Amino acid sequence: MVNQLINTWTREPLEESSMTADHTWIWREMISAIDEKDLSKQRVLDFGCNQGGFLRLLFDQRPFAAGVGIDLAQKAVDIAEARKEGRPIDYSAVADLVELGETFDLAFSHEVIYLIEDLARHAAQIASVLKPGGNYYAVTCCHKDSPLWASWRPKIQAFSNINVPDHGVEDISSAFRRGGFDVAVSRFLASAFIPLEGPSEYFPSDVERLECYANWKLLFRMTRS
User: Which stretches of the chain are DSSP H helices?
Assistant: First the structure.
Protein backbone atom coordinates (compact mmCIF):
# COMPACT_ATOMS: atom_id res chain seq x y z
CA MET A 1 0.00 0.00 0.00
CA VAL A 2 1.48 3.34 -1.01
CA ASN A 3 1.98 6.28 1.32
CA GLN A 4 0.23 8.87 -0.81
CA LEU A 5 -3.35 9.44 -1.89
CA ILE A 6 -4.60 8.12 -5.22
CA ASN A 7 -7.72 8.85 -7.23
CA THR A 8 -9.05 5.29 -7.57
CA TRP A 9 -7.73 1.84 -6.65
CA THR A 10 -8.11 0.33 -10.10
CA ARG A 11 -7.98 1.35 -13.72
CA GLU A 12 -11.44 -0.19 -14.13
CA PRO A 13 -14.17 1.84 -12.32
CA LEU A 14 -16.83 -0.84 -12.81
CA GLU A 15 -14.62 -3.40 -11.07
CA GLU A 16 -14.28 -1.09 -8.07
CA SER A 17 -18.01 -0.30 -7.92
CA SER A 18 -18.95 -3.99 -7.97
CA MET A 19 -16.93 -4.78 -4.84
CA THR A 20 -19.75 -3.96 -2.41
CA ALA A 21 -22.14 -6.46 -3.99
CA ASP A 22 -19.42 -9.09 -4.40
CA HIS A 23 -18.19 -8.81 -0.83
CA THR A 24 -21.39 -8.41 1.20
CA TRP A 25 -21.84 -12.12 1.91
CA ILE A 26 -18.20 -12.32 3.04
CA TRP A 27 -18.60 -9.28 5.28
CA ARG A 28 -21.57 -10.97 6.97
CA GLU A 29 -19.44 -14.01 7.73
CA MET A 30 -16.65 -11.76 8.93
CA ILE A 31 -18.99 -10.00 11.38
CA SER A 32 -20.38 -13.29 12.68
CA ALA A 33 -16.86 -14.65 13.28
CA ILE A 34 -15.46 -11.89 15.51
CA ASP A 35 -15.25 -12.24 19.29
CA GLU A 36 -16.96 -8.92 20.04
CA LYS A 37 -20.77 -9.10 20.11
CA ASP A 38 -21.80 -5.80 21.74
CA LEU A 39 -20.18 -2.83 19.98
CA SER A 40 -22.49 -0.19 21.41
CA LYS A 41 -19.69 1.58 23.31
CA GLN A 42 -16.89 0.94 20.85
CA ARG A 43 -15.06 3.09 18.35
CA VAL A 44 -14.35 1.12 15.18
CA LEU A 45 -11.79 1.62 12.39
CA ASP A 46 -12.04 0.19 8.87
CA PHE A 47 -8.60 0.39 7.26
CA GLY A 48 -8.94 0.50 3.47
CA CYS A 49 -12.69 1.11 3.51
CA ASN A 50 -13.07 1.65 -0.25
CA GLN A 51 -16.69 2.75 -0.80
CA GLY A 52 -17.67 2.19 2.83
CA GLY A 53 -19.89 -0.88 2.59
CA PHE A 54 -18.38 -2.89 5.43
CA LEU A 55 -18.88 -0.26 8.13
CA ARG A 56 -22.44 0.40 6.98
CA LEU A 57 -23.25 -3.31 7.23
CA LEU A 58 -21.48 -3.65 10.57
CA PHE A 59 -23.42 -0.74 12.07
CA ASP A 60 -26.73 -2.11 10.77
CA GLN A 61 -26.01 -5.52 12.34
CA ARG A 62 -24.13 -4.46 15.48
CA PRO A 63 -24.50 -0.73 16.16
CA PHE A 64 -21.31 0.92 17.39
CA ALA A 65 -20.66 4.26 19.09
CA ALA A 66 -18.61 5.70 16.22
CA GLY A 67 -16.83 4.45 13.13
CA VAL A 68 -14.05 5.77 10.94
CA GLY A 69 -13.24 4.46 7.48
CA ILE A 70 -10.01 5.48 5.80
CA ASP A 71 -8.73 4.87 2.31
CA LEU A 72 -6.12 6.20 -0.08
CA ALA A 73 -8.62 6.51 -2.94
CA GLN A 74 -10.34 9.90 -2.78
CA LYS A 75 -13.20 9.01 -5.14
CA ALA A 76 -14.04 5.90 -3.13
CA VAL A 77 -14.15 7.96 0.09
CA ASP A 78 -16.45 10.53 -1.55
CA ILE A 79 -18.86 7.72 -2.47
CA ALA A 80 -18.66 6.29 1.06
CA GLU A 81 -19.52 9.66 2.60
CA ALA A 82 -22.49 10.09 0.28
CA ARG A 83 -23.88 6.67 1.25
CA LYS A 84 -23.60 6.73 5.06
CA GLU A 85 -27.18 8.00 5.52
CA GLY A 86 -26.96 9.31 9.06
CA ARG A 87 -24.87 6.50 10.50
CA PRO A 88 -22.17 7.68 12.98
CA ILE A 89 -19.35 7.09 10.51
CA ASP A 90 -16.70 9.44 9.14
CA TYR A 91 -14.84 8.50 5.99
CA SER A 92 -11.49 10.12 5.20
CA ALA A 93 -8.84 9.92 2.51
CA VAL A 94 -5.59 9.73 4.47
CA ALA A 95 -2.23 8.15 3.77
CA ASP A 96 -1.12 7.84 7.39
CA LEU A 97 -3.14 6.64 10.39
CA VAL A 98 -1.34 9.14 12.61
CA GLU A 99 -3.17 11.89 10.73
CA LEU A 100 -6.42 10.79 12.40
CA GLY A 101 -5.28 11.69 15.91
CA GLU A 102 -7.77 9.15 17.30
CA THR A 103 -7.78 5.80 19.09
CA PHE A 104 -10.05 2.80 18.52
CA ASP A 105 -11.35 -0.24 20.38
CA LEU A 106 -11.55 -2.41 17.28
CA ALA A 107 -10.15 -2.37 13.74
CA PHE A 108 -10.82 -4.23 10.50
CA SER A 109 -9.48 -4.63 7.01
CA HIS A 110 -10.78 -6.81 4.20
CA GLU A 111 -8.51 -7.72 1.28
CA VAL A 112 -6.23 -4.79 2.03
CA ILE A 113 -3.29 -6.21 3.97
CA TYR A 114 -1.93 -8.01 0.91
CA LEU A 115 -1.46 -4.63 -0.80
CA ILE A 116 0.67 -3.18 2.00
CA GLU A 117 4.35 -3.17 1.06
CA ASP A 118 5.76 -2.47 4.52
CA LEU A 119 3.96 -4.77 6.95
CA ALA A 120 6.13 -3.72 9.91
CA ARG A 121 5.10 -0.10 9.39
CA HIS A 122 1.46 -1.15 9.12
CA ALA A 123 1.67 -3.09 12.39
CA ALA A 124 3.25 -0.09 14.10
CA GLN A 125 0.55 2.23 12.81
CA ILE A 126 -2.27 -0.06 13.92
CA ALA A 127 -0.60 -0.32 17.34
CA SER A 128 -0.49 3.47 17.55
CA VAL A 129 -4.27 3.85 17.18
CA LEU A 130 -5.60 0.63 18.76
CA LYS A 131 -6.23 0.54 22.49
CA PRO A 132 -4.38 -2.10 24.56
CA GLY A 133 -6.30 -5.38 24.38
CA GLY A 134 -8.08 -4.29 21.20
CA ASN A 135 -8.36 -6.59 18.20
CA TYR A 136 -7.44 -5.90 14.60
CA TYR A 137 -9.18 -8.35 12.25
CA ALA A 138 -7.56 -8.60 8.81
CA VAL A 139 -9.06 -10.85 6.14
CA THR A 140 -7.38 -11.96 2.95
CA CYS A 141 -7.19 -14.85 0.51
CA CYS A 142 -4.51 -13.02 -1.51
CA HIS A 143 -1.27 -14.50 -0.19
CA LYS A 144 1.47 -16.64 -1.66
CA ASP A 145 0.51 -19.71 0.39
CA SER A 146 -2.71 -20.00 -1.64
CA PRO A 147 -2.37 -22.23 -4.73
CA LEU A 148 -4.25 -19.64 -6.80
CA TRP A 149 -2.08 -16.65 -5.90
CA ALA A 150 0.52 -17.27 -8.63
CA SER A 151 -2.19 -16.76 -11.27
CA TRP A 152 -4.04 -14.02 -9.38
CA ARG A 153 -1.15 -11.68 -8.68
CA PRO A 154 -0.37 -10.69 -12.31
CA LYS A 155 -4.09 -10.23 -13.01
CA ILE A 156 -4.52 -7.93 -10.03
CA GLN A 157 -1.35 -6.03 -10.92
CA ALA A 158 -2.65 -5.48 -14.45
CA PHE A 159 -5.58 -3.32 -13.26
CA SER A 160 -4.22 -2.00 -9.97
CA ASN A 161 -3.00 1.57 -9.58
CA ILE A 162 -0.42 0.44 -7.01
CA ASN A 163 2.18 -2.30 -6.76
CA VAL A 164 1.00 -5.72 -5.55
CA PRO A 165 3.46 -7.28 -3.05
CA ASP A 166 3.98 -11.03 -2.59
CA HIS A 167 3.32 -11.73 1.11
CA GLY A 168 2.69 -15.07 2.79
CA VAL A 169 1.03 -16.02 6.06
CA GLU A 170 4.35 -15.98 7.92
CA ASP A 171 5.20 -12.50 6.59
CA ILE A 172 1.97 -11.11 8.00
CA SER A 173 2.06 -12.94 11.33
CA SER A 174 5.72 -12.27 12.07
CA ALA A 175 5.39 -8.55 11.32
CA PHE A 176 2.58 -8.24 13.86
CA ARG A 177 4.26 -10.44 16.48
CA ARG A 178 7.34 -8.22 16.27
CA GLY A 179 5.02 -5.21 16.50
CA GLY A 180 3.68 -6.26 19.90
CA PHE A 181 0.58 -8.23 18.92
CA ASP A 182 -0.66 -11.69 19.80
CA VAL A 183 -1.56 -13.25 16.45
CA ALA A 184 -4.14 -15.94 15.69
CA VAL A 185 -5.83 -17.01 12.46
CA SER A 186 -8.98 -18.82 11.38
CA ARG A 187 -10.14 -20.37 8.12
CA PHE A 188 -13.33 -18.53 8.91
CA LEU A 189 -15.40 -19.40 5.81
CA ALA A 190 -15.07 -23.16 6.26
CA SER A 191 -18.72 -23.56 7.30
CA ALA A 192 -20.32 -20.79 5.21
CA PHE A 193 -22.53 -21.26 2.16
CA ILE A 194 -20.33 -20.17 -0.72
CA PRO A 195 -21.98 -18.87 -3.91
CA LEU A 196 -21.07 -21.13 -6.83
CA GLU A 197 -20.98 -19.13 -10.05
CA GLY A 198 -19.15 -21.41 -12.46
CA PRO A 199 -15.71 -20.83 -13.99
CA SER A 200 -14.40 -17.26 -13.94
CA GLU A 201 -11.22 -15.30 -14.53
CA TYR A 202 -10.07 -16.04 -10.98
CA PHE A 203 -11.63 -19.44 -10.33
CA PRO A 204 -11.16 -22.07 -13.06
CA SER A 205 -13.91 -24.16 -11.47
CA ASP A 206 -16.44 -24.13 -8.61
CA VAL A 207 -14.34 -26.75 -6.82
CA GLU A 208 -11.37 -24.38 -6.81
CA ARG A 209 -13.63 -21.55 -5.63
CA LEU A 210 -14.84 -23.74 -2.75
CA GLU A 211 -11.29 -24.81 -1.90
CA CYS A 212 -10.07 -21.22 -1.87
CA TYR A 213 -12.83 -19.82 0.34
CA ALA A 214 -12.89 -22.82 2.67
CA ASN A 215 -9.14 -23.18 3.14
CA TRP A 216 -7.27 -20.07 2.02
CA LYS A 217 -9.56 -17.16 2.92
CA LEU A 218 -8.01 -16.33 6.29
CA LEU A 219 -9.17 -14.18 9.21
CA PHE A 220 -6.20 -12.90 11.17
CA ARG A 221 -6.86 -11.66 14.70
CA MET A 222 -4.10 -9.38 15.97
CA THR A 223 -4.58 -8.46 19.64
CA ARG A 224 -2.59 -5.49 20.87
CA SER A 225 -0.62 -6.39 23.99
Answer: 13-17, 19-33, 53-61, 74-83, 119-129, 149-159, 169-178, 206-211
